[in-house]
Fold this protein.
Amino acid sequence: MVPRTLLRTLTALSVGVVVASCGPRLQNQPPRTTPAPIAQPAASPIPQPSAPPVDTVATLIATSQHHFEAGQQELQLGHLERAKLEFNAALEVLLESPYGGRSDPRVREHFDRLVDRISTYEVAVLTEGDGFAEKKYEPASIDALLELSTFETPKPSPGLQATVKSDLQTTEHDIPIPLNARVLAYIDLFQGRLRDWIQDGLRRGARYLPMIQNVFRAEGLPLDLAYVPLIESAFKPNAVSRAKAKGVWQFMQGTALATGLKQNWYIDERSDPEKATFAAAKYLKTLCSLFKGDWHLALASYNGGPGRVQKALSRSRLDDFWTLASKPKLLPRETREYVPMILAAMVIARNPLQYGFDMPAAADAPAFDKVKLTQAVDLRRVAEWTGTSISEIQALNPELRRWTTPRQPDPGYELKVPAGTSGALQEKLGQADPNELATFKWYAVRRGDSITTIARKLGVSRTELAAANYLSVTSSVAPGQKLIVPRESTVLLNARADRPEPPPASRAVVAGNAMLGEAPSVRPTDNVKLMYRVKSGDSLSSIAHVFNTTVQSLKLWNHLRTSAIKPGDRLTIITRRGSLATTGNLQ
């Protein structure tokens, strides 16, 4: 049967043909009404190109890569648990897909690359972030400045002399500032070659100057002395000189101890600006008294030591720094240059605009809470639990030398954390397993052990081992006593040597380090799977040390909920070839 629409179309076409053929004979006929147009059939839709099929493998790999990159970012912040979750997710996306970890070539390549890259991070953690490594320090500015003083500086221009003279007449100083060639030469140097350096120091000092001035005002000291750190350290708490002076005030170790600053393996209060400022006030008052109120001699002794300056005064029978400094054999050159350098810094710092420097904006120190800790806690856990970065935690606590708070502090260590985060940290501390708060390993002392033999057995410095446990290298140790072995027990990824599909419990274990440096990649094929039979006296901690792994990893590999083990138990261990401290009792 012909469709009705098609019949209409054919009829219209046939009528059109007839009319066209009879056209000339119809010219004199009256016009006829034009019939209504006949509906045309709907045009067939133009076929569209079909959407390309979704590449599910590419999507899967992209999702995995997204988790891996998120893990990298968390690791750089020091967020261990979040990094672990992201790295685990990067692998689990692959392992739980229909392709598994190795069935599709592209998935297999991506999976293997992830294993290699996480292993590379592990090497960086173990080699650069171990528990023995002290934090990185910056060179103290005083060394570079005193090196410059060995070169003759040009005479200052008459214009500069007039500017300084006018400034000294209108700006009140509480340390005498002589208008001599040496002071003028350093003002000229600071305005010229060292302009940027002075400006940076002034800007950095804006954070600390209010605190320093308050301390000195309370102690009755000249406020000009607050600018001494501009030359000593450029106000850098982590500055260390070649002579091992440290901190904003550049205290030597002996002077720091004499002024009450604590120093041990865990902390060095010379790096705490506030504590060091109180110590500096105490020391400067002592020097002022020793030299009967002569601040030029007191400043010279701050650099060269009071004994050396007293000896020079006694030999020369002089009582004036400038006369003493004119005789090169009496004082070292650096001490002779130090005093005019400090005075020049005072002149500029009291009136920066007069000398072409920007006036630093007042900078408030960051607000913080304090949390009292009674045991060692890894700073990276603190950073994660307070939602901040490891660098911010370290900046708030510059006295901490390492990645941990002190072990067994008495009566407790007060850790500074960003304002408003103490509650969250205390909650996490209350929920955490105390054994997992710090990344130390523990060693149980055995009969016949000594600090020396233990250090040799563990391959660590006996001095470091003793210091980490508040002992001396000659201290005796008793069987059963537990010693901290301050070395990172970090494993980022536990990959089996033959790389089969990892079981759920051992897909990835992460506990990262924010200070990631370049390190040679470690091939997961260098890992070996072993079976170990537990013997009397073993603990998960001691076994983890022997096999260069972690208690957490042992628990994961062996599906252990607690750390309890007993002689005769067999444990699965994955470790690197050649990394065993001993082969002991392997099955």
Notes: Residues 105-128 form the longest helix (24 residues). The radius of gyration is 38 Å. The chain has four domains: 54-131+490-587, 138-355, 368-428, 441-485.
